[in-house]
Amino acid sequence: MKFSSITTTLTLTIFTTTALCGGFSESCDLEVGRTTLTGDASILRSYCKRTDGEWGEETKLDLDTCLGNDDGKLVHRENGDFTENDGCTGMYLRSDLPAIVYTASCRDFKGDVRWSEIDLNGIITNRDGVLECDT
């Protein structure tokens, strides 16, 4: 009986943790003009469903809090500041469902520029109508 209770608790904990990682495209409005980039193209804006099934207010996420520039390559990094010192510029977004591809021109350690892509759907979560970076 004790073993069954521990197994159930562990299973629910694992499911809850993995269910909230990435996958924002499944519950956010990806119609043209509803999920966009603003400012210097490092702010992701969208409308996402809340846990009650209703649409929330517009939510914004500064991608500098999610992405870093690792020698000219976009990487998932908490507080990565990928745009710092003009590290990455020329950003744009494209929907290639299930991927939401974010592309940028990034400088490597030598100062050369190269194009890099990352799937935002794998690193951004909709948490009750609010976009958040996975940690």
UniProtKB/TrEMBL annotation:
<keyword id="KW-0732">Signal</keyword>
<protein>
    <submittedName>
        <fullName>Cyanovirin-N</fullName>
    </submittedName>
</protein>
<feature type="signal peptide">
    <location>
        <begin position="1"/>
        <end position="21"/>
    </location>
</feature>
<dbReference type="InterPro" id="IPR011058">
    <property type="entry name" value="Cyanovirin-N"/>
</dbReference>
<feature type="domain" description="Cyanovirin-N">
    <location>
        <begin position="23"/>
        <end position="133"/>
    </location>
</feature>
<dbReference type="Pfam" id="PF08881">
    <property type="entry name" value="CVNH"/>
</dbReference>
<dbReference type="InterPro" id="IPR036673">
    <property type="entry name" value="Cyanovirin-N_sf"/>
</dbReference>
